[in-house]
Specification:
With about 725 residues, the protein is of the alpha/beta class. The protein is about 20% helix and about 20% strand.
Length: about 725
Amino acid sequence: MAALSTTGPAAVARPARSLSLTTRRSTHAMAPAGRARTVRVAAQVRIQFELEGASPDVRVIGNHPALGNWDPAHGLRNGDFITLEDPGAMSLEYKWHNGSEYEMGGNRMVVLPDAADRDVTLALAVVDRLRAVPDVVYQPPVVQQQQAPPPAPAPVPTVEPMYKGQPAQYAGQSGYDGYQAPANITYHDHHDPYYDNDHHDNDNDVIDHSYGSYQAPAAHEAPPAYEAPTRSHDDASPGASIDDGAKRMQFVPVSAAGSDAGDRKPDGSGPPRWFREGVVYSIQTLGFCGCEGPPGSFSEGERLMKLLNEGWIEHLARLGCTVLYLGPLMRASHDLGHGYDTADYFQLDPRLGTVETLRAVVDACHLLGIRVIVDGVFNHTGRDHFAVQDVVRNGRSSRYWDWYRGARELPGGGAEIPGWEGHAGLPQLNHQNPEVRRHITDCGRFWMSSEGANIDGWRLDVAHEVAPEFWREFSAACRDAKPDCVLLGELMHGDYNTHVAPGLLDSGTNYQLSKALWSSLNDHNYWELAHSYGRDKEMYGALTMLNFLGNHDQMRIHSRLNDPSAHYPLAAASMILGRGVPCLYYGDELGEQGKPGGPEGDLAMRRAIDLRDALANQNAKDIARCTAELVALRRSHEALRDADADQIPLAHTNETMAFARVAHGGASAVVAFNNSDNSQRMTLPVGEKIGAHDGCEFEEPLANGQRLHVSGGQLHVELPPNGLRVFLRV
C-alpha cells in the first residue's frame, strides 16, 4: 500500500469555514496614546485540520500534545478540531498518517496568524490536498530530540475522491466529476481560470488575509427564555464542516474599506461589481429560523446564530455564493409577526437576537467574501410602530397624522389607518412627508454603519409601490454612507426602467422572466423561454436584473417542476448561466419542496431546514453538488460571470435551445439545452452570431476540457437526454 502524500511542505492557517465564532471577552489592551497594541498570539486558538479526499480515519500527528506528540495512536482525526489555550509558539509541525505510515516528504508547518487582541478566540482551519505519491523511500517525520514511534497496527483507510457520485443526467456524458472548480476567484482580476487543479501551483486552500486575521465577534448570552435546539451541533465539533459535496474555492474577505464606488458603470449607474459578478443566496429569515408568526408564540433568543452554528455560512461558501440576502429581520408587530409588519426599524426582532447578533453574522460572511443585504420594508409598517400607535390614540392631533396614507378620525376619538392592499396590519407610509423620508433614510444608513451591522445593501420590499423620487433620496443617502452598497428593488409590476435607473435603484427582481424558466420545461416549450429572454433584452437590456426560480412567496421549484429530477439542472443552468444576477432560494439546492394551499399556508415555502439532516440524503447532496458546479462554472469564466455580458440567441425548438454569452472584453461561451428524453442534435451558427469562424476552438469544461472545432461557421452539438453542454471559446 502506497503511503499517503499531500501537497506542499507547509500549510497556511485560514479562518475556519466552519466558523465556530465565539469569544470570551471583548476588551482591548491599549498601548500609550490609545492605540491598540499588537499581541502576537491569541489566548485561545481553535484549529480544524482537514485532508481533502481522505477518509475520516486518517490522522494528523504533530509536535503538540493535542496532536499526539508524534504518536499516531493519539493523533487527531481528519476534520476534527483542537483547542490550544495560550499556545505560546507561533507554529506547529505535523504530518498525516494513514494508519500504517506517515505521508512522504518533510514535516508540514502551520503558522498561527497574528492577533490584534489577546482576548479573543481565533477560529482557524488547515486544509491540505492529496498529491501524486513520489517514487521515494518512506521517510518518517523529522522529530527533534526523539525518535518517531513505530506505526501503530491499524487497517489502512481508503482514500476516496471528494466526489463519489454524480447526477444521473451527467453520467458518462458531460464529465461532471472531472470538472474542477476555479482555484482562485477574486473580484479584481478578470481572467479565465483553468479547470484542472493538478496544474495549479498553490496547493493549499487558503484565504488571502487582505485586512488581517479574523477576530471573532463578542459573545452574546441568549436570554434565559430562549429554548436551545433539542439537537446540539456543539457536542463534538461545533460548527464542524459539513460535506455537501461542493468544490472548494479560495475566498477573498470583504475589505472594511472597499472601493469608493464599487466599480459601477462609467456614469455611476448600476450595481457595484461585487453584485454584478455575484451569486445571491436568499433566506426568508424568520421561517428559516423556525419562528415566523405572532411573536408572542415564541421565546426571545439568538436564533439568527443558526447561520453560524449549523454550518449555513460554510454551505453558502461551498456553493460558491457571494451575496447573502436575508428576509425581514427587524422587530415585528405583535399580531402578525411575519417581518413585513415592522414595529421598530432600529432593532433586530428579539426572536432572532440583537443588533450585535446580526453584526456577528455579517462579520463572519465578510470573512468568507460574502456580502450581506437585508430586506427593507419601507412601503408600510406594522401596527406596533410608534407613529401608528400615536395616530390611533390621538387622531388628527397626533404629530404623526401625516405619516400614513388615508388615516381617518373615529367618532369616539382616535383614528383608523387603512392597510396596504387591504391588509389591516400594514399601514402604508406617506413618502411625501419629510419626516417619513428622514426616518427611512436614517434606517438605511444605520444598518450599513459600524454602529449598526455593516450590511452591504438593501432588498427593498414592493419597491414599485413607492415613488421613484423617494428612492432617489434614499439612494443618495445610502451611497453617502457606503459608496459600494447595492439597492435591489422588488419589482412585480410595471416597467422596471421606472425604478432602476441612474440615481435610483441599482437592480430589480426579474419577475417577467421567472415563470418561463420553469414552465418552458413543464410544457417542453423552449419557444416560451427564448421569447422571454428576447423580451428581457429588448426592454431591460441596459439594466442588471436579479433572476430567480422561486422565493418566499412562490411554490418551490422542486414542487413546481413536473419532473424535477430531470429538469432542475436545466432550470438552474438557464438562470445561473444566463444574463443577469442569479439568486438561489434556500433549500432549492437541497431538493426541498413546498407549495401553498395546505395547512401550512405560505409557511410551506419557508420552513426551517436542518442542514445536516438534509445533506444526509444522497439525492439532496447530488442536487447541491450539481448547483455548486454550475455556480463554479459561472464564476470561472468572464462571459458567464458578468451579469451584463450580452446574451445572443443561437437556435431553439420546442425541446432544444442554445445561446451565447459575450463579455465586453470579447470572451464568449455557448450554452445548449435539451429538455426531452431523447438525444438531440443542434447546429449552432456561431460564425454568424458571435464571429467564431472556421478554425476557432471551444473547450467543454463539463467534459474534461475536450475541444470542439467550428466547421463551416457552425458548431455541431449532440445533446444528451435532459442534458446541457457548455462550450468556452479558447
